[in-house]
Write a structure and sequence with these properties.
By secondary structure, this protein is an alpha+beta fold. It has 2 helices and 3 strands. The protein has a 3-stranded antiparallel beta sheet, with helices on one face. The longest helix is centred in the N-terminal third of the chain and has 20 residues. About 7% of the residues have low confidence. Bound molecules: 2-acetamido-2-deoxy-beta-D-glucopyranose (2 copies). The site of one 2-acetamido-2-deoxy-beta-D-glucopyranose (NAG) has 3 residues, from loops.
Length: 95
Amino acid sequence: MDLKVVFVVVFLSALAITSTHAGIPKCCISIKKPTKEMFNVERWERQYSNGACDIDALVVYVKNRSKPYCINHTFEKTLIKMTAKKRQPHQKRRV
Ligand SMILES: *[C@@H]1O[C@H](CO)[C@@H](O)[C@H](O)[C@H]1NC(C)=O
Ligand SMILES: *[C@@H]1O[C@H](CO)[C@@H](O)[C@H](O)[C@H]1NC(C)=O
């Protein structure tokens, strides 16, 4: 390989590492048990194992935290319930 090519490859991979550090990781590679902190959930994204990522997971974005959590996708229903409860007074009218 040409030395210039090697340099470009090294530069590009360094760039990739930096951007994943600064931004949001594209894929959850492992999942954690949800913690109390997770109750500050702002939003989440469903990650599918059949897409670009290896595992099914929920990418949970929490207030006061720049990095999202990765949790088991089976918790999605819990999250929906939690956020529905919070928003109910503003969204729903009592009949
Ligand atoms: C977020 O951080 C601010 C400032 O550090 C703090 O006042 C606030 O209570 C925190 N909110 C939560 C939900 O932890
Ligand atoms: C997520 O939780 C379900 C039910 O508890 C379990 O069957 C599944 O293996 C878990 N997924 C991962 C990726 O650990």
